[in-house]
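Tutorial, part two.
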Amino acid sequence: MGDWFLSLPAGLRASLIITVTMMIVLSIFGAKVARLKPTDTPSGMTLVLVKLVEMVNDNQRDFFKQHWRTFTPLLFTILLFLSLANTASLVGLTAPLSNFSVAIGFSLFAFLSIQFSALVIKRPLQRAKDLMEPHWAFTPINLIGEMSTPFAMGLRLFGNLISGSVIALFIYSILGWAGVLIGPFLHAVFDVFFGVVQAYVYYMLLSIFLSGAVE
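Running the prediction step on this input gives:
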């Protein structure tokens, strides 16, 4: 098992580590929240997670008028995973989305989740009618959009993470020893700020396209 894990690309190993860590940590804090009484006030990390869940719930109510309870857990998980994945280099891990196969995986996930949800909730006949709006002649264009948009979302994550790494290395090579002094600032900008922003952008785009497909 250990040899198999070490044989994986660094990005895939980091993805598995983040996934398992999320499962353990969220299970622990989920159990803590479940034990809270209505009169109890959460504190520390529990309070942070409760407020984050409330924020995401409020945000998703603006997108999904009827089905927000169905999709919010999924979208919250995606937001949390990408936020951790895009800042993984801060703890010595390779950013998972810098691996092209992981980025393509997120593209496939977005495409399949949108199409499957629309088919289940709206039924095939209504879904077919939606793809022919505003006129049946627009069906090929609508189909191209349905296929290209999710893949562009995954490639956007990959491109932004790779470009951020390239820019950081370029600055290090120019500044030499002085780059060590501004290294923390560079990582704060490229790893934290840009990484979290890209996670939020993917989360928002997936929310928009999912809600548009099912509502």
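Residues 2-214 form one domain. In part three we will examine how such features are distributed along the chain.
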